[in-house]
Design goal:
By secondary structure, the protein is of the alpha/beta class. It is built from 15 helices and 20 strands.
Length: 495
Amino acid sequence: MQIQLDTQPYASIPGDALVTYVFDKENKFDGVLGDIDRAMNGRLGSLAASGELTGKALELVLIHFPEGLAAQRLLLVGAGKPEKFAVSDLRKIAGTALRHLKSRGAKKLIFLTREGEREPAAAQAVVEGLIAGDFESDKYRTEKKDREVQSVALAGFDAGLGANLTAAIDQGRILGESQNFARDLILEPSNRLTPRMLAAKAEAMAKEVGLGIEILDERKITELKMGALIGVAQGSVEPPRVIVLRYTPKNAPAGGPVLGLVGKAVTFDTGGISIKPAANMEKMKYDMGGGATMLGAMRALAFLKPSVPVIAVIPATENMPGGRAQKPGDVQVAMSGKTIEVINTDAEGRLILADGVFYARKLGCTHLIDAATLTGAIEVALANVHVGAFGTPREYLDKFLESAKAAGEKMWPMPMDEEYEQMIKSDIADIRNTGSGKGGGASTGAWFIKEFAEDTPWIHLDIASTCWVDEGRPWQAKGPTGVALRSIVDFALKM
């Protein structure tokens, strides 16, 4: 899909549809909407007066053969209440418009921004929304509808913004394509994405974009004494891998910070001996969503070139109930030397992250972010609305949450009180992999990982309830979301 700036008057740009947006209860139009309304002899005002054009968030009104426009259709998207509107909302508006018009066979679109939303950040948001909205989850269908948007012209922007506008459009494309790269990995069934296959895809991506890469095989993992990862992997015939990606900027200051990104990549999770119920187990292919997110983030950073060095560590394994599988009550020794009593083999993500986080520190990472589809408890707490965000010190987490807000991703700070730490104390080992009390599962899971981050500034993102959506949304297809990638990239660029 081509996306490019068009500085012609919007009314003269030909296409299948021109898209713009209307605010809630906006019935007196000015600016470009006023011009369109006058060219259409007050038709927009009539639609607003009749209640058909409300401006409520993501409501759509499609007008065929609009007077005064070279485009064949005019699509008006509701932008919600103006006092709550943010530039990041343009992502949803753009994605919603693209999906609606693509389903109706539109090939060439024009997206018209309104006065007040014409800065480079708005162009970036629109491009991200268009590309993310274009993603589909029907990869393995043999019969597909031949519907594809070929091009989108961005209208209404001041060409005088020059290089800043071009850079924003490029950054939007990089982020959108990297998010879709992660989503495509998450979508893959486990027979087509084993740990070795994931490592191969990571290697191909790294070579394409110029990242350093090292793949640790089972022999190297054993040499490093990654006992927590080995414990999870031993029940499967598929050997584990640890993917290490490096971005090293030319202008990095000596002795400066090094950002470590650690992603859980359980390519299929049966629960192990503590086996999951059969219902919905097929979704457990998405249990590598944290690893895919970090791969997508590294892809974006390779293009956007922050000044901070970044190392990604992605432990990849299956969690299977084979004859050699670890059992409840087993004790594993992590790479750090800490001993872990395995209470529930389905709490495996924190085990592989224990070795991943510690190894990232050994490689020199001074600041950490991990992402994982870690707990069902986070869905109980936050549903599928917010990512659960944990971190210490709180100032470090707060800076990250600023990036999440800028990226338009909803995240909620979760508690890390010392009482949760007490819940993972074991009677026979240093710690146990589930909490001893009732409730608080997301916080005890986070505390378990913090045991291996120790005093390193650290953020844990529990994306278990937001990494995948069972029902499509107006702006995105059902299936993988790629959540947290934009926030991580924004944070790295500002670090």
